Amino acid sequence: MVPFQAYQTPTAFKHGLGILSNLADEVKALGVKRPMLVTDPGIVRAGIADEAMNVLKKGNVDFVLFDQVAANPPVELVDRGAALFKQEGCDGLIGLGGGSSIDTAKAIGVVAKHGGSAVDYEWADPNPITVPIPPLIALPTTAGTGSEATLWSVLTDHERRIKFNIGGTPNIAATVALIDPLLTINLPAHVTAGTGMDALAHAIECYTMAFAQPFTDAVALLAMEYVGQYLRIAFAQGHNQEARYKMSMAAMLGGLAYGTDSAGAAHAMSQTAGGVVNCPHGAITARLLGPVMEYNYMGEPQKFARIAVALGEDVRGLSVWQAAEKAVEAVYRLTEDVEIPTLQDLGFSEDQIPLLAELASKDPQTIGNPRDINTQGYIKVYQHTFEAGRRSK
Fold first, then answer.
1. Mind giving me the DSSP string for 288-334?
2. What is the pTM of this model?
3. pLDDT tens digits, one per residue of 219-232
4. 184, 199, 229: which is the final residue of a domain?
């Protein structure tokens, strides 16, 4: 068979201020009688879960609440949720929250449909996920992970001290993504910053990865433009609806940029490091992005020059190489402007570099990186990241 690339998503994307009020109608339109609402305790405390449940109750939709999601969701959590799904006779899912809640909902769907444990479905060729998950409505409350649009779920295996991917197939996708930017209005500034930078990392890595293609390039570039124009505003003015809307779109577009393929070194590093130190995925990805770009730009100078333009840099009169360097500088500057914590502040130490580099080199996302990288390359990037952290003090 001739090798080829393809792009496919079964997700319907619906967005608008206040679209949460359509939730019950969307459930009924899917023919779902008893969905499981998957969310986390923070969403419950913030009152957002009550908003969603009130819409469901008003629409006479019977549902089961599973509000135990934790950051960097572990295998055990997913398996517990899947057991409850089957015990309660659920036939659909609603993922309400950030990436952790939506990823958990996807993975619960996989285990509920296929049996076994979530750890059995780590991405492989052939893909172990062979049939679609039950209907899933994704309701993001952050603007960053883009999990409502991706074909992936990222889980933590504490036994191996790693985070791993399941998915890479339309069988795990949300059926409907309901994107209501009003749900992001009350995000704390540091969460706005970390999740927004994660959206930027998705766009940049998927635009420059070895498996990029025209569709993903197009959505990635617009995601970059939105982040460059609106992340600082959303960070500084949490109630700015225009900024929140554009950042929600950036997250969605960044998720679409993934397709069924991988990202690159920044995500290989952040996902594996998140299995060593439990820290926010967005913050660590953001802190790694600039140093990774500094390492990578010579692999795809034309594309990095285009990134500079998308981020609003003036590249008139510059060579391709100078323009590519502007992209790196722009991301370093944005990282500082939105006050991303250093690796040191996130709980990492330099004596962990050999372990972190070895883990990153084994991550499948290394394969798509635009510059060849091995364990020594990862050591170099980690060293630069710690050095940048000292300079930002």
1. HHHHHHHHHGGGSHHHHHHHHHHTT---TT--HHHHHHHHHHHHHHH
2. 0.95
3. 999 999 999 999 99
4. 184
